[in-house]
Amino acid sequence: MQKRLSKRANDLFDAFNEASILAKKKRGSLIKVNEVIGTLSFFYEKIRTAVDYREEHLLRKSAILRILKRRFVDKNKAWNIADSLVRELIRSRHLKNMSVTEETVFAMSGILNKYIFLNNQIAKRELPNSKKKIEWLLSIAACEIDNLLKPKIVETALVNCMYDMLAKKISLEQQGIKEGEKDIQVYIAIHRALIKSDDDILSYHLLRLHFPNWFEKPSYQTIEKIANDINLIKDGIDRQLHHKMANRLYQLVRKYVAPFVILKSFIEQNPESARELFTNPPESSVEFDPFQPPDILSLEDKLRSVCAEKYAEFKKKLRRKAVRAVIYILLTKILLALVIEVPYELIFLSLVNYQAFIVNILVPPFLIFLVALLVRVPGEKNSDKIVSGIKEIVYDDEKRKIFVKERVLLRKRKFIFNFIFSFLYLLVFSITFGFIIWALHRLDFNVVSGTIFVVLFSIVCFFGVSLRQSVRELVLQTEKENVITFLFDIFTLPILRFGRWISNSFSRVNVFIFVMDFLIEAPFQLMIEIIEDWIVYIKEKREEIL
After folding, report:
1. Which residues pair with residue 395 across a beta bridge?
2. ∠ at Cα 336 (331, 341), nearest 5°?
């Protein structure tokens, strides 16, 4: 029986088709770099990635921003910046060799020209904190360039589809928040939960919302407006990103991510027939068996099969993240040992505590791997709920059971209760860290080695929870709580909060990143370019002889 698709589903299918057509278009001369030289850059980038722990989908955008910060000093030659940027991205394998045309480089130079012009206008005005605002604009430029290189057609369609499903279902009336502000906050929460956008990407989209002309053909008036109001614009965007409802909405929206993740994977596996499969869903009386050929499965069973594949894929992804986290922790520990721990023990204690050193080296990686091994993937009941959610997305006449109306509230407690709860939290904090310090004292840890252990242990616990949460985006089932999990949450909360604070603080003052970006990367990339030019020169001379 033929079924009527919702407008949002048709828009989603159209986006996949548009992305597929765009991917096949490669007109003009293609940029090519030397494969051997590219291998050196690739290994360097792997090391750089290990010491700068980020989500995989943000690595290319982060690399673009890093290159822009280094090369933006040459502000009069946008083409040179664009050409060098593309070649660096290809060498480091963020882009495939011969996948970018000179036409794209020309378009990129146009993007850079407008940011160079805006930068000059801001510099003329000598505004307070103008340097930070220019750095912020460079992060916007990195997002715009990344979108030029890899258009986010599918991601945008998914966000719009989820927004269409949730925006009217979420109520913030009792929080005194206007409808327009609520819509922006829901949009931000969906970006963060569904496609893992960071603040740079969200700033790019919010700026695009307020100044759409800037991303097309900005007029002189638009540039003047942005230059004059740059402080107000950035402060306004920052207020939206750090809204009082932001975290609460993110937690709510994250519960609904799973059906969209599976629907995306299903369409990617069936790009030509996905629309037809949903319009005329195949039916089967055969009981579901993942080992059966897919052509005899019903639509529901095909979707369950994709769920099973995605569960397995996420477990592999979890292990990759665990390996990256271990490398990050080990490098951090080695740096702290060389700079602080060993010198302190040699100078003040005249000996090195090898027991503490070994514990600090082995325990954090062991905990990360333990978390990765103990993570359980969802079961069949969860897959059934995901299938129901997908039907609600695709069909307008489907009865809503998954996507229901949600009222979002922030609890307002009296002062006395806040005081009592804060005191109890401080008590739990003291008990938790008091026990850890007591245990370390029993193991003969000194002040420095003990502090390093507490810092690394907290970071690892925070990483572990983050790794486990990455699997939660495929879960629609509600977790059952018991006394053990309740007590576990209470006594681990101080460690997790401290670990998050340390991770965020360390990411802003990462010594490894400072050394690599300012002392190693610039001369390394210059050496790579010289070697590549030398190889081209040798080939030219060889061709002259032949």
Report:
1. 5
2. 140
